[in-house]
Write a structure and sequence with these properties.
182 residues, alpha+beta, Outer Surface Protein A, domain 3, 2 domains, four-stranded antiparallel beta sheet, three-stranded antiparallel beta sheet, 36% strand
Amino acid sequence: MSRIGRLPVDIPAGVEVSISDNEVQVKGQNGVVMKRQFLPEVIIRKDGDQVIVERHDDEAFSRAIHGTTRAVIQNMVTGVSTGFKRELEVQGVGYRAEMNGKVLVINVGYSHPVEIDPPEGISFDANPKTREITVSGYDKEAVGQMAADIRKIRPPEPYKGKGIRYKGEYVRRKAGKAGKTA
């Protein structure tokens, strides 16, 4: 049995979970509602202040989707109660990120600044002094995808380390032409 899948999902105070026909709806304190339809290979039921995910049989696909379903439900509950955030760093001479209202403006060596409008449920925060960008929201998948899209604007390059990287990401550095030996 899946080690992740057999763990119950605890529902914190102030979060409401309703289940009908393998559709889970999670409602938070601040009015955030997340809805998701899950596959029929798993059984989702509510037991007091816990959500339990079980599977019908021991087929390979059922075993594979068991832990994934439980993890997605846990992320929904965590998202509506506390939210998620992903931090990025901008490194390089003249590279910077700043906020223009709700729009994130990034200057990373192109002839024009790159402006990013936040999608529904996502918010940005940029600190120009530390050159850090914070992407936050209640949907873990959307926050991670938006952070990856921002990083894709100028990924870190291996020679000087310039670019946008995740906070704490290690970029392997290479020696340039001058570092070559005969």
